Predict the 3D structure of the following.
Amino acid sequence: MAPALSKFASKPTLAGVCALTALIWILKKRGKKQIVKCRNVWPANDIQYVIKEEKPKNPKAYVNARFFRQLRQLLKIGIPSIVSAEFGFVLLIAVSLITRSACDLWMINIGTLIESSIVNMDVPVFKGRLLKFVTLLPLISVVNNVLKYGIFEMKLRLRTNITRNLMDQYLKGFTYYKMSNLDSRIANPDQLLTTDVDKFCESCTDLYSNVAKPLLDIVIYVYRLTTNLGGQTPVIMLSYLVFAGMVLTHLRKPIGQMTVKEQRLEGEYRHINSRLITNSEEIAFYQGNNREKLTLLTSFHKLVTHLRKCLEFKTLIGIIDNFVGKYTATIVGFYAVSIPFFQKNHPVLSGTADHRFKNYYTYGRMLVKLAEAIGRLVLAGRELTKLAGFTARVTEIKDVLDDLNAGKYERTMISDFKDEPIGNPGEGKIVTKDNVIRFDRVPLITPNGDILIRELSFEVKSGMNVLVCGPNGCGKSSLFRILGELWPVWSGTVTKPPRGKLFYIPQRPYMTLGTLRDQVIYPHTKEEMMRRGKMTDNDLKKLLDLVQLSHLLERENFANSEGQGWDVVADWMDVLSGGEKQRIAMARLFYHQPQFAILDECTSAVSVDVEDSMYSYCRQANITLFTVSHRRSLWKHHEYYLQMDGRGNYEFKAIEPDTEEFGS
């Protein structure tokens, strides 16, 4: 058995052919299995139906002038100036790389000397050189680990600066809302803001070290070899570098686009999993687990199929990379270093055969290092192409955020309405004025361009409590979204108080992560509450009394809770019932005491008597009400009504004492 293996191993060409044949056979078998499996698990029609195939145009990801412009823009964010700490780490990495190259050069020389003393059987010289070698090894170890530290810290700093910049833009005003509801270019910003930024920074720092070190080695070894062997040898190597780099860069072009698609599919799969968690209760009531499983598995199948295609392509390119960038470079290196030794009267041939062997050994090692550096530089092109994909992804969200903050939107169907005389998104005016809400010829238009009301005009002053009613889809929520500046004003003028004096409570109130106190004072923090000086914990307790929730301060054994009373931490979305969450939202309204309150069916899960006391307190606190509700019990708390019929018409009138059956 052993002789047979030895004989097989002695024929690397045959072994390589066998390995390649086996790989092709496995891929064919795997392909057939996947086709059969897909037919059994995912019917072709369901894949098209469950997950829509049409996607927005992906950003182009190629190593070209556009890529370098995008990279420069992102690096300006990551490295703000030459006097920043980030630039200091760039210099630290550069110094570490130079020191490491110097150490490599020194190790070549000392290694040659040690082996020469062994061949010459000079024991004292051997011991002295070996001791010198051992003495400097700790320094080399320090250099290597300082380099690793610098690269990792540089990645963290790049990620920190880019993430903060994107988060500042993403959470500026209502940009996060606009990205999901007004703009259709990015479907999964969470993936872009987290995973893609991290991978961009990692790829960027790795590329810096993987390119800078080979470049430095090439400069050093080309100089040393040119000085001792002449210029012909390095020229051959550098010419090969240019040729191999051009060929491999062209072959690797698809990798950038593959990276972009991979990250998009990863984001899609992650988004579908998040939807399942967010809507778990509704799905459970519908018993939709099998349908959701089909959706999840289909998304996962698309991701895995793409990853497998990437793997197959990268395997093929890897074979070419190794052959061109590594092994062929070594062959070219051997040929190039042999040229001076086959030339008569070359200075390197002077001296004895032992001296010539020593020269060949030293310069040969340098040339091998040069060949390795050239090979690494050629292979670094693969990382450069991959970086182009991540750069395109991160630049995409940066550009979209810039557009949204500048008031520019791109959404399906909205372009169909650009020629309408009604106007364009953002052409209307918003005027800030206390104690009044006025709509002057303002159209209600959805982000998709659907016109709900062509011209809406009414005025509400402080103290004029208004009940808004009408069928679903008539424009009630659209009115409030325009009032809250979530949607753009197409034309006309909206006059409203400043944002802090207008408070909105939705039907499904939001509970933040944090303590019980945080739920009442949201979006303020405890420090902001104390700085205002208007409310203490005792005042907050009175607000809970108003909404009949003071018992929460005494309730114990919250799941995963710590602390007592106001400092209890729990998952409030799960701990509180629907009615309790709506009452917490009303306590939040009482805490902020705005001029106007927008109440969107926000007491639908509250009993009539508690609802009556809360609305009565709003009137006592001079909070003007804008209420969406169909409860007859709320009529007595309002003086006016705004009724929309769902066909583009509306009516704004005072509520008469004998009004009957309105708002249904």
